[in-house]
Amino acid sequence: MMFPLVRNALSSLRIRSIQQIRARQSHSKHSPDFHDKYGDIILASGTAFCVVVWMFTATQVGIEWNPSPVGRATPKEWNEE
Fold it and tell me: Scanning 26, 31, 56, 70, which has its CA 20 to 30 A from the CA of 79?
């Protein structure tokens, strides 16, 4: 019915799948660029920097992180007047 017509139309457009493109790229000689050489190092150092900054902020700056009032807030005595 309609399926062979659609299949023929799609095959005539020569749509390449992602797998075909990756296979073609993997066969070519690829010289390492900046991102291949230093990408993982920069990602790891950026992650470590963010973790250190947040740990410093959370522990040393003195921000009060909305602690629970349980045990600190005591009710006042009831006044009968």
Answer: 70
